Give the backbone structure.
Amino acid sequence: MISQFFILSSKGDPLIYKDFRGDSGGRDVAELFYRKLTGLPGDESPVVMHHDDRHFIHIRHSGLYLVATTSENISPFSLLELLSRLATLLGDYCGSLGEGTISRNVALVYELLDEVLDYGYVQTTSTEMLRNFIQTEAVVSKPFSLFDLSSVGLFGAETQQSKVAPSSAASRPVLSSRSDQSQKNEVFLDVVERLSVLIASNGSLLKVDVQGEIRLKSFLPSGSGYGPGIRVDEVSFHSSVLLEEFESHRILRLQPPQGELTVMRYQLSDDLPSPLPFRLFPSVQWDRGSGRLQVYLKLRCDLPPKSQALNVRLHLPLPRGVISLSQELSGPEQKAELGDGALRWDLPRVQGGSQLSGLFQMDVPGLPGPPGQGPSTVAPPLGLGPASLSFELPRHTCSGLQVRFLRLAFRPCGNTNPHKWVRHLSHSDAYVIRI
Amino acid sequence: MPYLGSEDVVKELKKALCNPHVQADRLRYRNAIQRVIRMPKLDQWGQAEVLNFLLRYEPRSEEELFDILNLLDSFLKSSSPGVVMAATKLFLILAKKFPHVQTDVLVQVKGPLLAACSSESRELCFAALCHVRQILRSLPGHFSSHYKKFFCSYSEPHYIKLQKVEVLCELVNDENVQQVLEELRGYCTDVSADFAQAAIFAIGGIARTYTDQCVQILTELLGLRQEHITTVVVQTFRDLVWLCPQCTEAVCQALPGCEENIQDSEGKQALIWLLGVHGERIPNAPYVLEDFVENVKSETFPAVKMELLTALLRLFLSRPAECQDTLGRLLHYCVEEEKDMAVRDRGLFYYRLLLAGIDEVKRILCSPKSDPSLGLLEDPAERPVNSWASDFNTLVPVYGKARWASISKCQGAERRGPELPNTASFATAGPLIPDENKERAQELPDSGALMLVPNCQLTAECFEKTWFSLKVAHQQVCRWRGAVHPDTLQMALQVVNIQTIAMSRAGAHPWKAYLSAQDDTGCLFLTELLLESENAEMQISVKQSEPRTETLNSFISVLETVMGTIGDIKS
């Protein structure tokens, strides 16, 4: 199956290299791969490349390249799945996946690889089985402390009552087993949705797609069950989920292994129960003679009044040769700047139901476009690209799916009651509005 | 052997696939396979491996086939894309005689494939898109209602966008053509020139079926007067006019004005060709060509000049008065001043053709203006699923057929040498059908292959006795030059398992040697070599303990080879 496996940093430095079959023929396979990758012509896909007599398949994850080579004609889906699973496993064991964490935990990574792959064949990737074999402990960058709540407290008064998960939970390694049982009785349940929207220039909705996942990060060795209920188009479950009560009460039971796992994946298209979070009303005035381009953007947030959108950024590509920018923005904390041939408008927080506007004036001499005299409000100039929005919607799911309860079926061996954190989050995958 | 979940699973698999006794008994074999299929506790990697192994199995009856398909049905709904694809491939291959079953399977796999196409992982998305394209070649309407999933997103990498555009082009039908065309039209004005050009070519592809709408869109694009757009649009028009002559009128109306915006070789060639062939309908055609001729000295591309010559001559036939002067100037330049020989030759040829008379010119240059049947040849008709089923879920669709062909050619050349014995044995294994294996095993002893047993020690007395008791079975002479080197000869014969009983020393006259060999059935070959003098002929006499002509001939040829080699080395 796999001949070699290696991990490269984003600059091509090899961090991990493991040869399973010894058939590299003495060549530096990692270097070969990087050179080929950087020298690839623009329209060829880098996902699978061929050189000499071997195939290179890789994924990019957190800025790292995880690469596997093989000389047989095997299934690309299996191989990509394996690479993704390895990325998740390494993240589970080392805390997070990144150049720093990998370099600090080289021994652990090699041990993991030894157990997962034998002579290039996959033995097992289940965290339960691997737990029994892995001896090395992960090295974390700073000691974990429950009192590390520095990023908490952004959202106003209500945070005093609601519990907010400690920020370092995301980066804590899940699977360092033996010590500190008491500290680690926690379950994190994330309902994460990705929203993909395409709106045409006349305001009509061309495409709406929601991809959702329920992710469970469990530090417990035990089982649990919980219940959501909503209409979705396509659902798929993790293999360890028991579905008997799903049809009737919408309850999922499962016994999760330690570590991170995706319980359920669902998709919803075309018909969202709630209105789209953002609507943009642009108006463009362009005087070809003097080269003046005036873009007035009105952004309306259609979320319910209590919700907010965070880290909203509007990215609007501009025609070539834009010289200056003058702006008038409706709120003090907003920022707009010109960079990389595009306008970036940052709004850190947008309240539901509010309307924000920005007027941007630019000088664009010598701009090509449809012929015409005088200012034209009909046809925008070429290169004034579709506006894309990126944002996060905390505590909001576009499909309306809510996890109502998370119940643990039995108590684990520790005495303390385990903490349960449930989080709903939507963020934009590709929210594009055409001008 | 990959770890497949437990010891008994591995045992069952080994039994089913390796034990010839199980394979020989049809019923036992089938039971072992059934047990393999029902294994409960495999993880996703084990499942994928098992599904791969099962590709080798050929069910004996239709009933058994559907049994297996029913048992494996649940794998199609697995959450692991690797397992789903492996199951799909297995179904497609097992059901190769039942196209409706294949179609069913492809319908079931639509959901997972579409989910993979919108996956967060770019690489998975790409692999899924390649497979979607492959399915579309057999079932073009399969994904038509899901066309929205293939709309390109702004942040996607270039290679994914290209694949999506190709898919959109292939899944167009009456219901979605409007929206798809609108979407593609949006891409044509994309900031990235490559992507815009790909979108325009895609519209050209759709134009073969939905000509009017596409021509309208393309004409509008010409109005933007963008260089990279105009050149590709004109090229698309040229291809379209050839395949769909009904749009010629519309194209001719759109063309005037393009010449200002084209700078590259391909675009110019396309425009000039159009002006030449359809120039009678384009009012200012001669003047545009005249512009080109004015600047021919600074024209860098010889292909453009060639095209210009042909086009102008064609136009001359339909509009002689306006083109005569220009044609003359062009021919003069090409014959007298042009440095590229191909262009000069063509100019000279046309000049002489004109001298031969206008009828000759018409006969040669008036070629058909369009050939709609070429469209049918070019677009391969729907291919049956069986033609690509074995490539499904492998790296072949990800590379694309053309690239894969070149890869396997390189691989084949490299691998042929050392690996030959292994591949030969695997190739003959083939599908594990019990009966035929038995017959093949029995055939072997009857073949004429000769296997000389090494280290058969025959004593001198035994040799002498056997020698005198046998009659000469074969006698021949072979040429020999120079003296004999006994050591070399002895070693060479040893390599092919022919023992030397006695040999004269070097330089003896006459020189004699006695050799013995034994094959694996116990038949003895006794040989006498006799060389009277140097540069004479070597006499070979062979006696065989059992009269078998085939093996005797094999032995003779082995001996001849050795003698020939030694003789060559010496001389």
